[in-house]
Amino acid sequence: LLKEQRWLPVVAERLPVSVPELVHAGARSESFPYPWSLVTWVAGTTADLTPLEAEQGSAVAAVLRVLHRPAPEDAPTNPVRGVPLEARRAVVEARLAQMGMRELVPLWREGLDAPVAEEALWLHGDLHPRNAVVTAGRLTGLIDWGDMAGGDPATDLACAWMLFDSSRGRTAFLEAYGPSDAERVRARAWAVNFASALILSGDPKHERLGHAFAARLSGE
Question: Quick check: 163 and 60 in contact, CB under 8 A?
Fold first, then answer.
């Protein structure tokens, strides 16, 4: 939360979609021993309830192209997002073994073998459908920036398999963004990471999303 309070205003000023704007940063107290925020409401419906239209692929790519700028040296880091995939090997492979999802292992391993990111760019860090706000089929907002950090942009590019339920939408997104071959392979591996995490989250809504992502990945 403190990271979001400090850094989201820096990133948000150039984004072409709505984000929560900080109205008041609350301090810890005896009645509530944690920092807290009062923020503006982002109108719309999350993409798990109102899916993005396939034609939004290029629009989502444009938002991420604006977001994915070099992060400053003092930008926050995240131990589980934006890092080299090797840092996630043990936990992801344990999840895949637990679930018996052998069909996703090659996609994960290809990501591990791909060249790592050469530059730390600003990331949202958690671009699954419950954090994307949609109005009339269009992306109009992004919420829950608590995982934002400087790191590998392929983390966010995993949204190709999370925000679009059709291959047409994914293709439009990836063609518009134009990732390198290595970024695309890492992005697919990050999608495996998110799918496995959501399936084992214990949250029924997240579990359904994770199974949907896994099915899309398995179909490629």
Answer: yes
In angstroms, the CA 28 to CA 125 distance is 26
Rounded-to-integer distance, Cα 67 and Cα 71, Å: 10
Please name every residue paired with 24 in a beta bridge, in sequence order, or none if there are none. 38
152: Cα separation from own chain's centroid: 11
Overall pTM surpassing 0.90 (yes/no)? yes
Nearest alpha-carbon partner for 91 in 74, 108, 70 = 108
Question: Hey, how many other C-beta atoms are within 10 angstroms of the C-beta on 145?
Answer: 22
Q: Which residue has the tokens 């949202």?
A: 124
The per-residue pLDDT for range 49-100, each reduced to its tens digit, is 999 999 999 999 999 999 999 999 999 999 999 999 999 999 999 999 999 9
The C-alpha angle 11, 15, 20, rounded to 5 degrees, equals 70
CB-based burial label for 169 (10 Å; 0-12, 13-18, 19+): buried
Q: Are strands 36-39 and 45-46 parallel, antiparallel or unpaired?
A: unpaired
Distances (CA, A) of 40 to 116, 132, 145: 37, 16, 14
Distance CA 194, CA 125 (A): 11
Identify residue 22 by its one-letter amino acid code.
L
Backbone φ and ψ for 104, nearest 5 degrees, come out as -90, -15
- Is the separation of the CB atoms in 152 and 176 below 8 Å? no
Return the C-alpha torsion angle 124, 61, 152, 129, nearest 10: 40
Q: 158: closest CA among 213, 88, 103, 94?
A: 213
